[in-house]
């Protein structure tokens, strides 16, 4: 990180932080880029880019397969990234399976933990606001086991209906899957309370943390879940990175999801002895450079301080909400009491894709579509929304520029 970006214990120089992100210097359609799509993927600071580049230039080798210097360097950097991630979320490194991201992580839990255990009559409980990655794997498992899926609803303002959720926690429920932060609504769910209630009823819990780790301090040990999945590319790291945390007893009992090299201790034609967790679940050559880059992203976020990151983004969100409130015809989806810096919206009489296309002509990058959350779109009775998602590297000037661009685009579509 630029050493001028911050001083420990003092206010962060956010303009210097912004300078750490090379892509934000781009122009799009002849205008300075305004990137309001961080819920889709986060931008990468120079330190992450340089770390990946340095690995390929100076250390490139496979991990855990060579005694030569490069192999030892690659292995230490890769396992060092695992340790950094574990500290970042307050878990033991041996409980952290490195993988390509949340989708793979949830599939790993679904196929290695749920598939061997569920049977007809069992229930998988999900919520109305889940991303497809926390729906489709459970549908596939349910089809193969005879289990069923039930869904806990939300309130019109986009909060979980906790009374309904707890009422749905019947003895038949074996697993609850719930997002920590909604990628569409920004709703921050009280996952610690939810996991406590599930644990009292003997229900295992899986938390989708994709939208939480980039924006707030996450202490998995304090949450008390059974599984926690997250993605690296949303938290300033490279794509194709992430992890599944699972309780040690689950990892010990779960069979491997994939078979091949690295995840074995000994292979004979009459049988195989698997490696210890987490390596038992990491078959084949991993995304070495990517995860080393994710370790650098953790270093960067740690230096900023996640409390500083969250406070900055809440300031920007408050400003964005003020600006949008001044624009006639704007409908906001999700006004829960506790929210991350995500605003899904529509403008009266305009299609979400038309809005996003015209905003792009103004240099503004927002997401449009169903956001991999079809059931949530059905709940609100819309086919798609636009989504403006902020990060700590955005500015108040950008919020005002975004509002001005939206007013201009609204006029074109009127």
UniProtKB/TrEMBL annotation:
<keyword id="KW-0808">Transferase</keyword>
<comment type="similarity">
    <text>Belongs to the class-V pyridoxal-phosphate-dependent aminotransferase family. Csd subfamily.</text>
</comment>
<dbReference type="InterPro" id="IPR015424">
    <property type="entry name" value="PyrdxlP-dep_Trfase"/>
</dbReference>
<dbReference type="GO" id="GO:0006534">
    <property type="term" value="P:cysteine metabolic process"/>
</dbReference>
<dbReference type="InterPro" id="IPR000192">
    <property type="entry name" value="Aminotrans_V_dom"/>
</dbReference>
<feature type="domain" description="Aminotransferase class V">
    <location>
        <begin position="35"/>
        <end position="402"/>
    </location>
</feature>
<protein>
    <recommendedName>
        <fullName>Cysteine desulfurase</fullName>
        <ecNumber>2.8.1.7</ecNumber>
    </recommendedName>
</protein>
<dbReference type="InterPro" id="IPR015421">
    <property type="entry name" value="PyrdxlP-dep_Trfase_major"/>
</dbReference>
<dbReference type="InterPro" id="IPR010970">
    <property type="entry name" value="Cys_dSase_SufS"/>
</dbReference>
<keyword id="KW-0663">Pyridoxal phosphate</keyword>
<dbReference type="InterPro" id="IPR020578">
    <property type="entry name" value="Aminotrans_V_PyrdxlP_BS"/>
</dbReference>
<dbReference type="GO" id="GO:0030170">
    <property type="term" value="F:pyridoxal phosphate binding"/>
</dbReference>
<comment type="function">
    <text>Catalyzes the removal of elemental sulfur and selenium atoms from L-cysteine, L-cystine, L-selenocysteine, and L-selenocystine to produce L-alanine.</text>
</comment>
<dbReference type="Pfam" id="PF00266">
    <property type="entry name" value="Aminotran_5"/>
</dbReference>
<dbReference type="InterPro" id="IPR015422">
    <property type="entry name" value="PyrdxlP-dep_Trfase_small"/>
</dbReference>
<dbReference type="GO" id="GO:0031071">
    <property type="term" value="F:cysteine desulfurase activity"/>
</dbReference>
């Amino acid at each position: 990180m630029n050493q001028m970006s911050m001083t420990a214990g003092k206010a962060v120089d956010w303009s210097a932080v912004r300078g750490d992100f090379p892509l934000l210097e781009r122009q799009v359609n002849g205008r300075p880029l305004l990137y309001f799509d961080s819920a889709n993927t986060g931008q990468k600071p120079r330190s992450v880019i340089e770390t990946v580049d340095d690995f390929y230039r100076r250390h490139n080798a496979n991990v855990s397969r060579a005694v030569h210097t490069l192999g030892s360097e690659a292995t230490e950097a890769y396992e060092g990234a695992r340790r950094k991630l574990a500290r970042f979320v307050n878990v033991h490194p041996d409980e952290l399976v490195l993988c390509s991201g949340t989708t793979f992580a949830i599939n790993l839990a679904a196929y290695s933990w749920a598939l061997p255990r569920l049977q007809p009559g069992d229930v998988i409980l999900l919520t109305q606001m889940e991303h497809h990655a926390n729906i489709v794997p459970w549908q596939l498992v349910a089809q193969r086991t005879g289990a069923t899926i039930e869904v806990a609803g939300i309130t019109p303002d986009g909060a979980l209906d906790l009374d309904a959720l707890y009422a749905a926690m019947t003895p038949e429920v074996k697993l609850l899957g719930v997002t920590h932060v909604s990628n569409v609504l920004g709703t921050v769910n009280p996952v610690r309370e939810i996991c406590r209630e599930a644990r009292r009823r003997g229900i295992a819990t899986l938390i989708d943390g994709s939208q939480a780790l980039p924006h707030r301090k996450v202490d998995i040990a304090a949450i008390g879940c059974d599984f926690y999945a997250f993605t690296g590319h949303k938290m300033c790291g490279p794509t194709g990175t992430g992890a599944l945390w699972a309780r040690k007893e689950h990892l010990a009992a779960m069979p491997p999801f994939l078979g091949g090299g690295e995840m074995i201790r000994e292979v004979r034609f009459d049988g195989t002895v698997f490696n210890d967790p987490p390596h038992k679940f990491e078959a084949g050559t991993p995304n070495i450079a990517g995860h080393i880059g994710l370790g650098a992203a953790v270093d960067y976020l740690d230096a900023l301080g996640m409390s500083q990151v969250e406070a900055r983004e809440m300031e920007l969100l408050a400003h964005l909400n003020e600006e949008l409130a001044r624009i006639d015809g704007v409908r906001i989806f999700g006004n829960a009491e506790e929210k991350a810096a995500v605003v899904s919206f529509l403008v009266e009489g305009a299609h979400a894709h038309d809005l996003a296309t015209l905003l792009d002509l103004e240099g503004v990058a927002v997401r449009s579509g169903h956001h991999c959350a079809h059931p949530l779109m059905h709940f609100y009775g819309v086919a798609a929304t636009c989504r403006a998602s902020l990060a700590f590297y955005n500015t108040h000037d950008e919020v005002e520029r975004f509002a001005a661009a939206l007013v201009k685009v609204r006029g074109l579509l009127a």
